Amino acid sequence: MTLKSKVRLLLALFKVGLVISGLTAFLLETELRMLRGLFEGKSGWLVSDVREWIVKVHGGLAETNSKYPFIAYGTDWLGFAHLVIAVAFIGPFRDPLKNVWVIEFGMLACCLVVPFALMAGQFRGIPLGWRLIDCSVGILGIIPLWYCRQLIARMDKAV
């Protein structure tokens, strides 16, 4: 497999993650209702804590959506942003050397997820465990981008 093919594969996986993440922002209440159902009847200290949090979030979201559905417009824009960011990665998919800045931008964004999730989550009363899950998105996201950056550097040396 060529270096360019490896970069394209990693970018395709990264873009799929962005698209899935973006699409899930549109149906939060439905998704939380389904997730809530998965935890019904389960036991254990961690399971009960997670279930309790999911029930709380689902209840708040359902109540907000029934009284103030326009608030969900904010998460619609969040989903849209994920989709637009995925489109930005078409550039490095086509020409990794010319568009390496997009990879670097993505890496920076992944790094910024960690302090943002920790600080904003604290301010909004999000449990630490949930904030750490959010942090993991940035940490996991940077791995394929970092590897792409390394491959692109090797491609650049070969030119």
Write up this protein.
The chain has 159 residues and is an all-alpha fold. The chain has one domain (3-154). The protein has helices spanning 3-24, 28-39, 45-67, 73-88, 90-94, 100-124, 128-158. The protein is elongated. 12% of the residues are buried.
Question: What are the key terms here?
Answer:
159 residues; mainly alpha
In DSSP terms (H or I, runs of 4 or more residues), the helix count works out at 7
* Overall pLDDT: 94
Portion of residues in helices?
over 70%
Radius of gyration: 19 Å
Low-confidence stretches: none
Short description:
This protein has seven helices and no strands. The protein is mostly helical and 159 residues long.
Write the layout of secondary structure elements.
Elements: H1 3-24, H2 28-39, H3 45-67, H4 73-88, H5 90-94, H6 100-124, H7 128-158
Helix pairs in contact: 1-4, 1-7, 2-3, 6-7
